[in-house]
Amino acid sequence: MSDDAQVDKKPAPEEEEKQPAATAAAASTAAVELSVTGMPKPVLAQPTTAAERRKTEQDYEAWMLKCKVDYENDRSMIYEVTIKIKADLADDYQAWLDDHVKEMENVLFYKDVHQRSSEVKTADADIEAVFKAGDQYVEKVITYIVPSYELLSDYLTNGKATVMRSKVPKVFNGHFVGSRDIRRTNAQ
């Protein structure tokens, strides 16, 4: 059997739980496609089962570890956007978000990107003015690796971020909450 065939082999569901974390991370790294820069680029398909969600999280963890190793002597930045959207709009929002992320490549000039979504969650308490306790929402996290602080700063301070945020369809206004996190890829 060739090496390629072994990489694509998936464990049976009952074996999946027994798989050691290191083996799972290695398998998830092998299962991702490579971007133009050679960085692993996890597939953007949204998980639908608990096993698929675990795989998405394993892919993300392996991808972030690879980014840290590859960018250790680099000036790259992580720009992470977290969106909490009402559960009944999550699928429509994801369809728009996929196109938005592709458009961001021409504005932010990111090296790589990864998206992940949570299961439907129920708000324990009010979240800003959008969610009341008991409302259901989905959390979407988009992580961009930006080549430099200067590119990210230009995006955030010269109106580009405002323009991109203004492109969110009005149907979603008042139905989501967003936050951003910025850090260096080589931060300890």
How would you describe the overall organization of this protein?
With 188 residues, this protein is α+β, with helices and mostly antiparallel strands. The chain contains seven helices and seven strands. It has a single domain, classed as 2-Layer Sandwich (Alpha-Beta Plaits), CATH 3.30.70. The chain has helices spanning 3-8, 13-16, 21-30, 50-70, 90-108, 149-157, 160-166; strands spanning 33-34, 40-41, 77-86, 112-117, 121-122, 136-146, 176-184. Strand 1 and strand 2 form a beta hairpin. The N and C termini lie far apart (41 Å).
Q: Report how far the terminal alpha carbons are from each other.
A: 41 Å
The total tally of domains equals 1
Strand-pairing-aware structural class? alpha+beta
| Percentage of residues assigned to helices | 40-55%
- Overall body shape: globular
Which residues form runs of ≥5 with pLDDT under 50?
1-44
Percent strand equals: 15-25%
Q: Mean pLDDT, as a whole number? A: 75
Q: Architecture in CATH?
A: 2-Layer Sandwich
At the fold tier of CATH, the topology name is: Alpha-Beta Plaits
Order of helices and strands: HHHEEHEHEEEHHE
What is the total tally of β strands? 7
Question: Using only CA atoms, what is the Rg?
Answer: 18 Å
The largest sheet is: 5 strands, antiparallel
Number of helices: 7
Supply the CATH class: Alpha Beta
